[in-house]
Structure formats: structure tokens, C-alpha cells
Amino acid sequence: MMTLYGYWRSSASYRVRIGLALKGIAVSHVPVNLRDGSQKQADHLARNPQGYVPVLELADGTQLTQSLAILDYLDGVYREPALLPKEAVLRARVKAAALMIAADISPIQNLSVLKFIRAEHGQEDAGVTQWAAHWIVQGFEALEALAETSDTDYLLTDTPSLFECCLVPQVYNARRFGVDMATFSRLSEIDARCRALPAFQKAAPENQADAIKA
Ligand SMILES: N[C@@H](CCC(=O)N[C@@H](CS)C(=O)NCC(=O)O)C(=O)O
């Protein structure tokens, strides 16, 4: 069986959990507690020198990092349901939308970035939250404009794609940082449609064994 080293609230881990659940792949979960710094301990650095989750360990011990690369691997090996359309232009457009989140929005509010602006730039909770929300809103404005050009059930497709694996965790984060999702009606509609599906529910942060129940 595969093992996913992740953290319940990590959006990159959440992306991979969604992909695994959509494809019905059995996986064992090993929590890496980002709050106590376990990601910087030697055992995790041996898995990923970046000190990030997720890491997917295959049954033969091979370790894969970077959520989009992991999802690409899963999509290549477990073909159905496909996370990417076969048609080349649509495929590129779905990847571009996923990268708007994974490459442009999400890294700016990574835990280590937020810790840095808190420690090195004197920001308190309000400043840190404002920083994160600002970049999410800017990215979501572009995504909402893109979303309004299509009328498919999901962003550009009739079934959840690589994009939705990225969107739902990013909306979860947006809510944590107080972003008013009412402004983003089509993104909210797609997010709600996804979260009604069993695979997305299985992958949800609150349904993970390491979730801290408030
Ligand atoms: N581009 C990476 C990002 C991974 C990443 O940023 N992981 C975060 C959690 S979402 C992390 O491990 N942060 C730990 C830290 O910042 O110390 C991916 O998509 O896998």
C-alpha cells in the first residue's frame, strides 16, 4: 500500500488526498505535525529536503514530492477517472488554472512564509491575515473571471479535474483567512459541488485522524 506523509490542514496534502480518493486508491496516512516543526526533523528531511509535505511513498519505497507531480504520477498510472482532459488545448487550460493556485496563490501563504513576515517584518496576526487574504483575493479575481467564461459543472470540465483538486483546499484556506467567498460566486458554486462528493468529503481536513477538533 502507498503511504501519504501529510498534515490535515496542509492544502498541498489535501490536493493529493482528493486525487487519491477520486481514484479510489487505498493509502495509509502518516501525519507530519507542521505546528511542532516535525517537517524540519531529520526523518522528514530524508523524505523531502525541502521540509514540506506531502510526500507520497509508493509500495516499493519510492518517495514522490510536490503535490502536482504526485497527482500527475497518479493520473498516469491510475487512469480512471482522469484528472486531465485528453484534448491538448483543454488539458493545457486545466493545468494553467491549477497552477494559478498551486504556483501563484498558495506559496505566498505557506506556513514558513507567514512565520517569516511575522518574525522578520514585525507582523502580528492581523497583518499576517491581511497578507494571506490579499494574495488569495487577487488570485481568485482572475480565476472567477476565467470561471465565468465556461458553464460546465466544474471549471472547464464535466467531472472534477486537477483544478478542483487545487481549488477546494485553496477555498478552505481562504475561509481560514476571512476571505468573503460571496464575491466569487462561480468558484463558490464549483467548490460546493465538489464538497458534496464522497471523495472530497473523505479528503477534507476535518475528517483526518490528526485533525485538531476545536
Ligand atoms: N509546492 C509544494 C508545496 C508544499 C508545501 O508548501 N507544503 C506546506 C504545507 S501546505 C508545508 O509543508 N509547509 C511547511 C513549512 O512551511 O514549514 C507542493 O505542492 O507540494
Form type: globular
**CATH class value of the largest domain:** Mainly Alpha
Topology as H/E string?
EHEHEEHHHHHHH
**CATH topology term of the largest domain:** Glutathione S-transferase Yfyf (Class Pi), Chain A, domain 2
**End-to-end CA span:** 31 Å
Q: Can you give the helix content as a percent range?
A: 40-55%
What this model shows, in words?
There is one protein chain. With 214 residues, the protein is an alpha+beta fold. The chain folds into 2 domains: 2-81, Glutaredoxin; 88-199, Glutathione S-transferase Yfyf (Class Pi), Chain A, domain 2. It has 9 helices and 4 strands; from the N terminus they run βαβαββααααααα. It has helices at residues 11-22, 42-47, 67-77, 88-105, 111-120, 125-147, 162-176, 185-195, 198-203, and strands spanning 2-6, 27-31, 55-57, 63-65. β1, α1 (11-22) and β2 (27-31) form a beta-alpha-beta unit. It starts with a strand and ends in an 11-residue tail after the last helix. The mean pLDDT is 96. Glutathione binds at residues 10-12, 34, 39, 51-54, 66-68, 102, 110-112.
Properties at a glance:
alpha+beta, Glutathione S-transferase Yfyf (Class Pi), Chain A, domain 2, 2 domains, 4-stranded mixed sheet
Spell out the blueprint of helices and strands:
Layout: E1 2-6, H1 11-22, E2 27-31, H2 42-47, E3 55-57, E4 63-65, H3 67-77, H4 88-105, H5 111-120, H6 125-147, H7 162-176, H8 185-195, H9 198-203
Parallel strand pairs: 1-2
Antiparallel strand pairs: 1-3, 3-4
Bound molecules: glutathione.
